[in-house]
Amino acid sequence: MRRFNFNLKHMLVCMAALLSPQFQLAGVYPLVPALFMTGFVCGVNRSLLFLCSICGLLILAPVSVMVKYALVILLSAALVWGLEQYTGHCRTHVAGALCGGVTVVVGLCWNGLHLPGTSGLVIRICEGILVTGFIYVVSRLVMMIPDWEPRSEVPVVMYAPGGRRLNEYAESFEKLSRTFRKMNRYKEDFSAEELGRMQTEVTGRICASCNQCAICWEEDTMPMYQILYRFLQALQRGRETDVQERATELGEYCPYREDLIEQVQLVFEKAHLNMAWYNRLQENRDVIAQQLDAMAYIMEDCANEETDVTAKEGKITASMRYAWKELGVLVEQLRILENSHGKWQVLFQGRTRGSKCISVREMARLISGVSGRGFAPAKDSKALLGTESQSLIFCENSRLTAGYGVARAVREDEQVSGDNFSFQMLDNGCCVMAVSDGMGSGYAACKESEMVIDLIEKFMEAGFLPDTALRMMNSAMVTHGEHNLFSTVDLMRLDLDSGEAAFYKIGAATTFIRHGKEVRMVTQKSMPVGVFVGQQVPKVTEQLADGDFVIMVTDGVLEHLHVRDAGETICEVIRGIDTNNAAEFSRLVLEQVLLYTGGRVRDDMTVLTAGIWSR
């Protein structure tokens, strides 16, 4: 069964139209056409509005007045409807002018017939002006009336709470992660107890069948136990000189020296292999713990629900509706959500009037003008709003914007560069720039660095923090790196509201930041991705501003310059570049580098530049 939509705004306007003949001024009834046209252009049910207006005239006005203003209403409605069919919509001031003009013309014609209810020319003109002004002003006030609906019937399709349950799930994952971490006990050396068990195993294999066993192990004068224990300790330390010394010492007391040493080494290697597998199990547990922590973080982030401030910002909401109505947009549902950082999202459901389409960017421009905040359509939004109802999301712009450019050179004896890069604009108001240099060159290096960049993009899009994403990616690369092909990662995450940039470097070359003519270097020393589990992700924070440039390079740019200080040389090159185009900036840097190398490209070269500007 279809539910009845009780709309407070429609009912108030219709009641006002019904009672409008009660108001008379100098023999005219300006509120009759004015209230009718106000409701007509404000989306009130037109059939119900026309019925209420005619009923009010029948009940409260003389017959001549009823006929006159019924004609004004019919002619005004016909003109506005025809304009809507022709152009797609009719703006409020145009509808007011048409209705005021019709009121004046019909009134003057009525004067010519000398019928009752006529008045002078000045009064007719004043009535038309009053009608036009009333429609223009009151239509804005009508849009301020909220579309009230019973609380139980307010649709919830636009966003769905559930933060409490997500927080509970996140807490469970965190507890499970802590449990896995408590189970982790990495082993680097054997304990005295474990060395004793190895010694017992060796003596059980060799000494138990030896005729001199009682002599070696039972007499106090034969220190066989200490000698064998010291030999195992020497194997554990791994120093060859110690092992040879202890082996010689062992030969002085055991006639089966060679067999005994062979068995000791076999038992030790077996125990060492078991310890390696044990540590790998601990590494896998650590990887699982990291992933559980990451899942908990994502759940907690999702649980931080956006607050619905539609009712609180009623004036802005009404202004949006009015501005869109003037553009020819029929608003079916509108919500304003505010996140934990105070940023707004406008959720829109609606369509256009008539048959024309409207640019979604134009709709965003109107939101910006009404709210005083910059808005843009969300990523992957449709470009046009058509006659079929659709949902749109408009996101508040950040204070800064960023653009990028890249220049690359492939190693002389290769067809494909082993470097890959990425530049992402995220929905949370941040941008991420990353470069990965695959170890080696050619297709193998390209495939490895491409996988690293792909993982970074997926993690960033999912909402992970860079350090969490890099740790998880490193864990995946450790298990993948059976061919000993590792990749460097140079990553920057820039908050486009605050201007704070966080740099993460894993085996990457120096990054350069230009602020005016000042050039700063960001360096960190660490192993490439995939070398070992549990690798720490160093972080450097810098503050960026309007006009700054961030230049990332791979090691091929710095390692073949044939200068004493490659970093300072690149700083001088960057200071001398005069352009605001990021792509041109990268090209000029690479050209200068090739001048230093004599045009030779002995390693893959990539220069990735990001420019930061105020909106």
TrEMBL record:
Protein name: SpoIIE family protein phosphatase
Record-level Gene Ontology MF annotations: phosphatase activity
Record field: transmembrane: 66-83, 95-113, 125-145
Organism superkingdom: Bacteria
Limits of the PPM-type phosphatase domain: 401-612
Keyword set includes Isomerase: no
SMART domains: PP2C_SIG (SM00331)
Keywords: Hydrolase, Membrane, Transmembrane, Transmembrane helix
Pfam families: SpoIIE (PF07228), SpoIIE_N (PF19732)
